[in-house]
Amino acid sequence: MSCFRLRIRNARQLVQVCSKQERFKSGAAQDDIALIEGGAVVVSQDGRIAAVGTNEQVEAWLQKQPQPVSFEKDVDATDKVVLPGLVDGHTHPVWSGSRVDEFAMKLAGATYMEVHAMGGGIGRTVRCTKASSEEELSQFLKKRLDRMLKCGTTLVEAKSGYGLETETELKMLKVLHKASKEHQIDLVATYLGGHSVPEGMTAAEATLDIVQKQIPAIIQAKKDDLVNPEFIDVFCEKGVFEYDDTKTILEAGAKAGMKINFHGDELHPMDSGKLCMCVQAHAASHLEMLDTANIKAMKEASTFAVLLPTTMYILKLCSPPARELIKNGVPVALGSDYNPNAHCLSMPLTMHMACCLMGMTMKEALVGATINAAGSANRAETHGSIEVGKFGDLLVLDAPQWEHLIYEMADPPIEHVIKNGRIVVSNNQLLV
Ligand SMILES: N=CN[C@@H](CCC(=O)O)C(=O)O
Ligand SMILES: [Zn+2]
Q1: Are 170 and 218 in contact (CB under 8 A)?
Q2: pTM greater than 0.95 (yes/no)
Q3: For the segment 41-59, what is each residue's pLDDT rounded down to a tens digit?
Q4: What is the pLDDT of residues 255-305, one digit of tens each?
Q5: Which segments constitute the Amidohydrolase-related domain (predicted)?
Q6: Which residue of 102, 127, 195 sits with most ligand 1 atoms within 8 Å of its CB, as the best mutation to test the pocket?
Q7: Which is the closest atom of ligand 1 to the Cα of 121?
Q8: Are strands 394-397 and 414-419 parallel, antiparallel or unpaired?
Q9: Per-residue pLDDT reduced to its tens digit, 305-325
Q10: With a 6 A CB cut-off, is 270 part of the ligand 1 pocket?
Q11: Which of 71, 156, 268, 428 is the least buried, fewest Cβ under 10 Å from its Cβ?
């Protein structure tokens, strides 16, 4: 007897997103998704997808198995929709303290940098995070990841960056590494020692500290399996780390084996596309101020654009050039940018905002929150679509068509969230 972990059948729509093992979708392909009507999917005991297709195709595949088959869980998805687990391409989920009062300041007209200059913003979160124990930060992180899972996220890119010195950056990366082993959500960790210039230092001094102290300490901790940052990030911004310092830090990170995914062109034009080419960036985020020449440079560099609609919304920034990026063939991914400035854990809401604020279609947004976000986090081989061999990360939607995931904004009708073929959330209740 072959016992599979899960079968779902009779789905009114089974949205694969990709069916040809694409590692990303760009240009016109970003507005095109693979969808099966009357679909079924089977997940093996190793948590990977064993078969997907129409009910008839999957049934024929099961008939061909050498032994009789059974299923640990058999879900009838009649009148329902099946989608891949969502991927959040950009988050800052490890921090303590509160910045709720800064929301009122921003509503009254203060800009992001003005709040920062008044002692708030990143610097304030850094002070609190330094004072918190690893245990306390782990507890906060767990609660946030649980809430993300309830919103349908099964893979998250997660940054450090509220330490800005060796000890606290390592503490944050340890918290992420532990969560990557313990939590249902899969995590890709990013080292963001260059998130802000620490109080009392110049950008040049902070750059030296990162290159000479922080990165070597991270390499050692990685060898000891205490941390595992796969990416390096810098907030490349006027008055923070500007072009040359950013380049120095990113190159040092790349030399240490980390891929590059940096914050660029958020508040001022910083030539991020040119920088992507220069350092061979895997991804760059924000990009509100990106111009045409830099869009073309990103295309040339084969860099993912990770767009963050919650941030432009809360800071009342102009929209990043989503349409022009797509037109120029840059794969656009989406991230919630979860952080104390933009307190959003939900990819359905993020997709909704990408449609309403950035002019993306619903298909483009779904691709941005699945295969392209997985690609931006270097996980396209395992996440971001419903294809044989990938992790059995699935959503069951109690809706007649998949667009309800985006249309219903803050409360999409997600009935089940499935991780590696196991139901981990049912009707908004965590089961693990
Ligand atoms: N812009 C820089 N970093 C974060 C905000 C971090 C914070 O304000 O705490 C972002 O991606 O939006
Ligand atoms: Zn960010």
Answers
A1: yes
A2: yes
A3: 999 999 999 999 999 999 9
A4: 999 999 999 999 999 999 999 999 999 999 999 999 999 999 999 999 999
A5: 81-424
A6: 195
A7: 8
A8: antiparallel
A9: 999 999 999 999 999 999 999
A10: no
A11: 428
Ligand 1 near 311 CB (within 6 A): yes
- Angle at which helices 166-182 and 215-223 pack, to 10 degrees? 30
Structure tokens at 11: 């789905």
Please report which residue ranges of 54-120 form alpha helices under DSSP H. 55-63, 100-107, 112-117
Read off the tokens for 256.
Answer: 């240490």
Sign of dihedral through CA atoms 281, 268, 297, 248? negative
The CATH fold assigned to 2-85+385-430 is Urease, subunit C; domain 1 (2.30.40)
Residue 324: burial class (beta carbons within 10 Å; 0-12, 13-18, 19+)? middle
Contact 267, 288 (CB under 8 A): yes
Just give the CATH number of 86-377.
3.20.20.140
311 φ, ψ (degrees, to nearest 5): -75, -45
The domain ranges of the chain are 2-85+385-430, 86-377
What are φ and ψ of residue 419, in 5° steps? Answer: -120, 125
Q: Which ligand has the shortest distance to the CA of 315?
A: 1
Atom of ligand 1 nearest to the CA of 116: 8
CA–CA separation, 242 and 272 (whole Å): 10
Minimum-distance ligand 1 atom for the alpha carbon of 311: 12
Q: How far is the CA of 90 from the centre of ligand 2 (A)?
A: 6
* Model-level ipTM above the cut of 0.95: yes
Beta partners for residue 396, in sequence order: 82, 416
The rounded distance, in Å, linking the Cα atoms of 423 and 315 is 37
Distance in angstroms (rounded) separating the CA atoms of residues 388 and 374: 16
Using a 6 Å cutoff on CB, does residue 336 contact ligand 1?
A: no
Say how many Å lie between the CA of residue 314 and the centre of ligand 1.
11
Cβ(332) – ligand 1 distance below 6 Å: no
